[in-house]
Design brief:
mainly alpha, 2 domains, three-stranded antiparallel β-sheet, two-stranded antiparallel ribbon, 7 strands, globular
Amino acid sequence: MRKIYAAMLVIAAASTLPFFFACNNETKTTEPEAAMKPNEDSIKRVERGAYLAMHVTGCIDCHSQHDWTKYSGPMVPGTEGKGGEKYDQKLVGVPGVVYARNITPDPETGIGSWSDAEIIRALTQGISKNGDTLFPLMPYAHFNQMAKEDILSIVAYLHTLKPIKNEVPKRQLMLPMMSLAYPPNLKSSIDSNVIPPVSNQVAYGAYMTNAAACLDCHTPMIKGQFDFAHAFSGGLTFQAETFTVTSANLTPDSATGLGSWNEERFLNKFVPYRKEEAYNHVAGKQNTIMPLTFYAGMTDDDLKSIYAFLKTLPPTKHAVEKYPK
């Protein structure tokens, strides 16, 4: 996956770096051309945004198309951000049906006509360009806790996506959005949010765990509401078309969670999926919706930080059957 977004960044950057040769074959750059060159800060911002959107926050995971005949449903190349993935009652407990929106810069069917401020509001407040409230399957409550610099980086990266014309069906909900608010105490401004220093492994791991919205899939629900008293203890069952899988207990309970896992074992849950041979096989009923092919692109240090944070959680004894019959 790293190769995919790295190539996209190179292409995007190259398109803004025209060059020509003078008659004496010496390379020369005029002042206007120099002004067109992206500065180092803007390149780093897009790189950071690509890393987050591709491998941490799930933007590209949720808003692209997947090949579910293969393990963990790797992304279909060329569909980055086009939307259209269907989420319903069976898969994720949605009271109705919602579809991942098109987040490519296409002006008609995507977010090409959105301002940066409108994109940021959608990401962190859950409010679309036209003022509609986004369904809380979109983890805007988590993004609301992220540093503004990281959100700006994601926005910068989204601008580099290939515009794809793809009209996504409208959602069909059985309940009014006002009864699905999540949560009601969002910050009105993310300006004060900061990225903890990497040297503080647990705090930084908590930040990255929040950005990856691990809580949402690994926390049981009661009558459609998260059971925060048992956060991260797993137990959510996802019923896809060809398989059914239940999320794992991520708390450090020694019998039913990660208590017996060391750092190396945790990394080995992700690292192998950096290579295609690890997921390029027909998974059948032993498949998973866990986006391992995306999360595998996280750096070892970031994965280690997440592990360090998870080890600080209160142990919750909750046995989970991964593939319920």
